[in-house]
Amino acid sequence: MAKNLGYEGPQKLYKLVQNKSKPGYETLMDILENYPELRAEWLMRGEVPMIRAGHTSDAATEAGSYPGIPYAVTVNAQGEEQVSIVSTKAQAGYLIARDVEETLGELDTISVPGHHGKSVRAFEVAGDSMQPTISPGDLVIGSFTERLDLIQPKHIYVVVTHDRLMVKRLRGPVKKNEPIELLSDNRFYDPFFLPQKELKELWQVNALLTGSIPANTNETFDRMLVLLEMLAHDSQHLRSILLDVAARYDVKLVAE
User: Fold this and answer.
1) Mind listing the pLDDT tens digit for each residue in 86-98?
2) Which pLDDT score is estimated for 152?
3) Which helix (H) or strand (E) holds 45?
4) How many C-beta neighbours within 10 Å does residue 114 have?
5) 141 touches 120 (CB < 8 A)
6) Of 78, 83, 72, 84, whose CA–CA distance to 18 is shortest?
7) How many CB atoms lie within 10 A of CB 207?
8) What pLDDT score does 80 carry?
9) Lower Cβ count inside 10 Å, N or C end of the chain?
């Protein structure tokens, strides 16, 4: 953002985010000029909606281009960004651009150590396409991805389109207008490509809150050892019986 605004470094913006200083008139004008889709009322007074009605940025209107900014964020009374939880019930409203601000205002929020001070959001997972890594009902916590060339290969992302919200692994970074390849951890789901123009938001998953505690991964191995010990014991017992019978009837056992 500092680069887009023509600043030499991000220090000025860091101070604003950390509430160490307040934006001046020139800073506000710089932001509005470079991001014309933002409403001045939202930027200066916090009045929703954030995006101007019927207006999108030049990047968003360009064919096949990813907007690169969240549709809305939630902050507390101190201006600190909060982690909103987008549950499965709230996802329908979240997908409709005009309802994002209202939906976020009604969502529960959580505080997660190490995940604050930047655009962070939590999403409830529906479906089993990412099992066994992620189960239905789990919460994934992701940070917003501004550029598609910053996608980490094979990392998990929350992919928000115009009509659905998915949790998938991405093959890797993509160039302008290139489709995005989405992968599932569940082998019963095939990979597929998403046209870049359908992508609204992208959140890289950095944390997972789950109620599914995996079973002991060594349980099968431990059971196998017990069976091997039982077989070894039984074979020794059988060998002693055979030797006793052979001795009684004066039979010589020949090794294979």
Assistant:
1) 887 656 666 664 4
2) 92
3) helix 40-45
4) 9
5) yes
6) 78
7) 16
8) 66
9) C
What pLDDT was estimated at residue 185? 94
Residues in the chain: 256
CA dihedral 150, 151, 154, 158 (to 10 degrees): 150
| Beta pairing, strands 180-183 & 165-170 | antiparallel
As a whole number, mean pLDDT of residues 39-59 equals 64
**How many CB atoms neighbour CB 226 within 10 A?**
9
CA angle (192, 195, 197) in 5-degree steps: 155
Alpha-carbon gap, residue 49 to 218, rounded angstroms: 53
- Burial 115-151, CB ≥16 within 10 A → b, else e: beeebbbbbbbeeebbbeebbeebbbbbebbeebeeb
- The per-residue DSSP string of 126-142 comes to -SSTTTTTS-TT-EEEE
Q: For residues 87 and 100, give the distance between their C-alpha atoms in angstroms, rounded to a whole number.
A: 13
Quote the tokens at residue 221: 């191995």
Q: State the Cα–Cα distance between residues 142 and 202, nearest whole angstrom.
A: 9
- The mean pLDDT of 195-219, rounded to a whole number, is 83
Contact 121, 86 (CB under 8 A): yes
**C-alpha to C-alpha distance for 87 and 123, rounded to whole angstroms:** 6
**How far apart, in whole angstroms, are the C-alpha atoms of residue 123 and residue 86?**
5
Alpha carbons 255 and 249: distance in angstroms, whole number:
18
Residue in 47, 42, 20 with CA at minimum distance from that of residue 31: 42
Separation between Cα atoms, residue 72 and residue 234, nearest integer Å: 69
